[in-house]
Design brief:
208 residues; 64% helix
Amino acid sequence: MRDTYTGADLLEQLLLHKDQLLTSIRREDIALDAFLRQEARRPDHNPVFRYVLKHYIGLVNPNLTEAFEHTYFRLFQEAARQPDKLKIVGLTAALYEVRNRRGNPSMQFPLVTQMLHLLNVHYPIYDPARIAFLGLPSANHLIGFDKKMTRYIEQYRHLFEFYQSILRDSRFDALAAAFDEHFQNHSYERPSNAKKLDLLVQAFSQTI
């Protein structure tokens, strides 16, 4: 586990390694995110969207059941139709009630944040590997929904504030401009600054 970063610390590292990070980001991932984001907003999700999404976010998991997948997409559809009623704890709790193949409840907070991120890019993706990289403690050892949820929400709030502090920093403008210059001549919707930051942090956690 690395030392805990502040927003300013991480932004400095992103600026320092921007050329390497931009090279490591695939255009296909930007295009795929644009496609999923567009389709996620629709009041009805078609089979192609569902197929692509479940492979993209890791919903194809031997420990998860068809009932879980069905519930996930039902909740996603409801959230897309009423985005003003998004409740991260309620969504996680509803999925927690669906037993996995071992007959146990399944805490799938990261999958919930993937859903919310596609509907509103300012909801960060909670990736356990990224959380560990940023120096935050794991919730895996905690037992019970309430204890795990408390840890997740604390960390998620920290992650949100962390990202927002970077986006508000004037130095991020240069990084966003470098991103746009590197990914010119695209046929997909240009990602927002929040998505650019998400892609850069993901690349940094995987390559540096």
